[in-house]
Design goal:
There is one protein chain. Helix content is 37%, strand content 36%. About 5% of the residues have low confidence. The longest helix is centred in the last third of the chain and has 29 residues. The chain is an alpha/beta fold. The protein folds into 2 domains: 185 residues; 135 residues, GMP Synthetase, Chain A, domain 3. Strand 2 and strand 3 form a beta hairpin. It has 11 helices and 15 strands. The strands form 3 sheets. The protein has an 8-stranded mixed β-sheet. Strands 11, 12, 13, 14 and 15 form a 5-stranded mixed β-sheet that branches. It has a two-stranded parallel ribbon with strand order 1-5.
Length: 360
């Protein structure tokens, strides 16, 4: 029995080592693309820059880029292929970036190739980027390759920060669904620094507006049924005090009046929070209640202004129309498009601070 066990372990080790050799050989024989950036450089002329990681003998990673210009993304792929002695592989593509100029013209034709490629996962990140992508993708942004770095930056801010869930699948779903418009992360590439600057808003497939970083958390609260890890700075003018409040959890609910006739809509945010910092000595119950009320007012005002801006531009990134659709059997997209800009949409915010944190 012992002999058989040793034999099995030996066979497993041999298999593992051989698999490692095969994987390394595969990596050496292909161009493993992890990111692609698209710039608009003329009328209908697109320049694509593909990022391929180069694994060094000292375990460091550098970036190699290939660029090509064409009017169709398929033609770009063919031109890129002619620049390399190895075939390009898209199975590890982490992120695709689109310049603001290109996004304003529309993305449907550009992303078509990713929809059709069976090797590309639906979790691929799409990003709107400020800066010349050909130039910026030649800069190293971290100790890992640029595609993986940008992907991890977005993933971290989705899970623990200001960005709502986003990927290729969700963008396509919102693009072709009634009652909702798509959005994408908006990043800035400048020098050796990559930073998330906000959320790009779309009307159909065209980029038309930006939610700046300071309002992204409000958007995320309104969009998702449940969120966490949102921070807000509060100032109490009368006391001359400042507080940093951190949301442990936010639950969002809808109340909709009579759909398609008198759609009075209320979005309810129930927020449980803690005070991380307070600048004015001991935190009393009175001070806590004032912070709760101030936080409710700030979130309600910013959320209301945001929704009014959406209505005036006739875009619906929150999917309010989708919530109305789910509550009526007589859904009519044409009628809803008429009702939406003037529909009364109220935001009710309830903040409960459960405990205090650091006091200066």
């Amino acid at each position: 029995m012992k002999r058989n066990s040793l034999l099995m372990i030996s066979l497993f080790i041999v298999h593992f080592l051989l698999s490692g050799c095969i994987d390394q050989q595969i990596l050496d024989d292909v161009e493993l693309t992890t990111a692609v950036g698209y710039d608009l450089i003329g009328d209908d002329l697109i320049e694509a820059t593909a990022v391929v990681p180069q694994y060094q003998s000292d375990s460091s990673v550098t970036n190699k880029t290939f660029s090509a210009t064409a009017k169709l993304t398929k033609d770009i792929s063919d031109k890129l292929t002619r620049q390399s002695a190895k075939p390009f592989v898209s199975g590890k593509l982490e992120v695709t970036l689109y310049s603001t100029e290109l996004a304003k013209e529309g993305l449907t034709n550009i992303i078509d190739i990713f929809e059709r490629d069976p090797h590309i996962g639906s979790r691929l990140y799409l990003v709107i980027a400020e800066g010349e992508l050909k130039k910026q993708l030649n800069i190293q942004y971290g100790t890992i390759d640029n595609g993986m770095f940008l992907s991890k930056m977005i993933e971290h801010n989705v899970e623990n920060g200001m960005l709502p869930k986003t990927n290729l699948h969700q963008f396509i779903k919102s693009l072709y669904s009634d009652g909702i418009d798509p959005f994408l992360p908006y990043i800035k590439l400048q020098g050796k620094v990559a930073s998330i600057e906000g959320i790009a808003l779309f009307k159909e497939d065209k980029y038309i507006d930006l939610i700046h970083a300071e309002d992204c958390s409000i958007f995320k609260m309104l969009l998702e049924r449940s969120t966490k890890d949102v921070s807000l700075a509060i100032e109490l003018e009368e006391e001359g005090a400042r507080a940093s409040v951190h949301s442990i959890s936010t639950k969002r609910n809808y109340k909709i009046g009579t759909p398609m006739s008198d759609p009075k809509i209320k979005i309810i945010l129930n927020i449980n929070a803690v005070i991380r910092e307070y600048s004015n000595g001991r935190i009393t119950k009175k001070a806590t209640r004032k912070i709760e009320k101030k936080m409710e007012k700030i979130i309600r005002n910013r959320a209301t202004n945001m929704i009014k801006s959406f209505q005036s531009q006739q875009i619906d990134p929150l999917g309010i129309g989708n919530h109305v659709k789910n509550q009526t059997r007589n859904w009519d997209i044409t009628k809803w498009d008429e009702l939406y800009p003037e529909s009364p949409i109220d935001v009710d915010v309830n903040v409960k601070i459960n405990q205090a944190g650091v006091v200066e």
